[in-house]
Write a structure and sequence with these properties.
With 101 residues, this protein is mainly α. The protein is built from two helices and two strands, in the order H-E-E-H. It has helices spanning 2-12, 52-95; strands at residues 41-43, 47-49.
């Protein structure tokens, strides 16, 4: 009997808040309060959402951010490469000496 009381207490206890970890009291996207007796839709292990739609919207936003980050990373690498080739071309052209006529 003491065991079942301990288990009930364990599952009923609210977790202590940790910085950076969302609590299970509101949707991470729309901030709608989450009831204890309603379904909670999780994403990335610890982020709660009130519905599949909110979770899906967050997934789409994360995908867009990832694509933008990949593009900006590629864009940052590309100008460095082209500037090297331009400086190489500049050195190549400056070393050419016109032939005397």
């Amino acid at each position: 009997m003491a065991t079942s009381l301990a288990c009930a207490f364990f599952f009923d206890a609210e977790p202590l808040g940790e910085p950076g970890v969302p609590a299970l009291d509101a949707c991470a996207l729309c901030a709608k309060p989450l009831a204890r007796d309603s379904d909670i839709f999780m994403y990335r292990g610890d982020t709660p959402f009130c519905s599949e739609e909110c979770r899906h919207e967050q997934m789409q936003l994360d995908a867009i951010r990832a694509r933008r980050a990949a593009r900006s990373g590629a864009a940052r690498r590309q100008p460095q490469h082209s500037s090297r080739s331009e400086s190489w071309r500049g050195r190549q052209e400056s070393t050419k000496v016109p032939a005397a006529s």
